[in-house]
Amino acid sequence: MQFFFPRQYRHRRIMLWMMVAELPITIVILTLTGIASHNLYRSLLWQDGADNGFNSAPNEALYAAANYRAYTAPMVWSGFLTNYNLVIGVLSTFLWVVKFPIHCMHLFFPPIAAVVHGSIMVLWIVSARYQAGSDMSDPKHPQPGPPWYISKSCSVAAHKSNIAYCEQAKSLFAVSIILIVYYCVELGFSIHSCFITPEEREEVLEQREEKKIEKEFEEEILKSPSMIPMTPGPMSPGHMIPGFMPQRGMVPRTPGFPPVVATGPVKDGSPVSPHMFTPRTLGFNRLDANNGSASSDLPLRNSPSMPSPHMSAHITTQEIGASAASPMYFPPPPKKPSKN
Fold first, then answer.
1. Measured between alpha carbons, how far is residue 264 from residues 106, 259, 270, 280 in Å?
2. Helix (H, G, I), strand (E, B), or coil: what is residue 255?
3. Phi-psi sector, 227: left (phi>0), alpha (psi -120 to 50), beta
4. Radius of gyration of the chain (CA)
5. Biased-composition ranges for Pro residues (predicted)?
């Protein structure tokens, strides 16, 4: 059974625009967690709720220590929650900075996106659970549900200077819920793209088969470099001479390209040589594209002593016949001595 690793999104543009819209939410959550760090308003809201009788008081830790009793601050009022929110706020920003360019380069594959979005979503769910946690440390003032700054209006604050801090804490909880929903939607799109359809499966199998054939062909060439596949070339120019055996040349085949069809149309009973568009001859055709009308920048290109491909191509049948009728020898035969 072959394993298929999904690399494409079903709705890639939707994921891209969702990541673009995620940036302002990430900046807002990073700002709010940064403001709340270092206990800017946590203890103030805790004390404000105690003054109204909504929850326990911060000084209970002193009474517990004086009476030699163990005391643990409620998670909703602990410094751990403040630092935890700041860490995952920075982590969310860092993940966006990394995943957006990777997604643009088609490297943020759906399985990786599902793991990333699922992990960061779980971290924010834990944060929202702690922010809405209860405070049952004081039996006289129990808080079974969320803290007062979430469940009540900020106008009920005992000290009016804490209203702005109440609104910031309420905003932090609201943006956390929005970010959780956002990550959940991105997780859904990522998981949906992880399941390959039969059409995509066939396409992947076809691509794998093509790569396998190409790899086998390259290995065969590397094992026997002298056995380069050849394709039939055009007819030799002597096919017009009576009694001349026509010979067809061989053109080396370039690996990775199909064989070039060398047979062209027939005119007056003789084949016409077509234009060869193989990668080997394409470079020569570009060099001779000007037909000698402009000077080339290659050395010895315009020298009259250097033979040109066009000069060798314009060999007439009469010249070939004359050369076939009077063969030349090298070195020439010795001359007969003249009689005096």
1. 44, 14, 10, 19
2. coil
3. beta
4. 42
5. 329-340
Of 126, 128, 121, 123, the closest CA to residue 181 belongs to 121
User: What are the boundaries of each domain within the chain?
Assistant: 12-196, 198-229
Q: Which long-range contacts (CB under 8 A, 24 or more apart) does 15-18 make?
A: 15/103, 15/113, 15/186, 15/189, 15/190, 16/103, 16/104, 18/182, 18/185, 18/186, 18/189
| Pair 284, 277: CB distance under 8 Å | no
3-state helix, strand, coil in the chain (%, to 5): 55, 5, 40
Q: How far apart are CA 276 and CA 234, in angstroms?
A: 9
Max intra-chain CA distance, the chain:
151
Distance CA 184, CA 117 (A): 7
Q: Mean pLDDT for each consecutive 10-residue tract of the chain (340 residues)?
A: 75 92 96 92 94 92 85 91 96 96 92 95 96 91 93 93 95 96 95 83 79 82 63 50 50 50 48 48 52 50 50 47 50 60
Structural tokens at position 39: 């206990």
Type and span of the H or E element at 189: helix 163-194
Which whole-number Å values give the CA distances from 97 to 20, 100, 101, 306, in the listed order? Answer: 11, 6, 7, 61
Q: Give tens-digit pLDDT for 71-107.
A: 888 999 999 999 999 999 999 999 999 999 999 999 9
Best CA proximity match to 98, nearest among 112, 85, 84? 112
* Predicted model pTM: 0.62
**Amino acid, res. 237:** P
φ/ψ (deg, to 5) at 143 = -130, 90
b or e along 50-71 (b: 16 or more beta carbons within 10 Å of the residue's beta carbon)?
Answer: beeebbbbbebeeeeeeeeeee
Helix (H, G, I), strand (E, B) or coil at 263: coil
Q: What pairs with residue 248 in β-bridges?
A: 235
Residue 95 contacts residue 22 (beta carbons within 8 Å): no
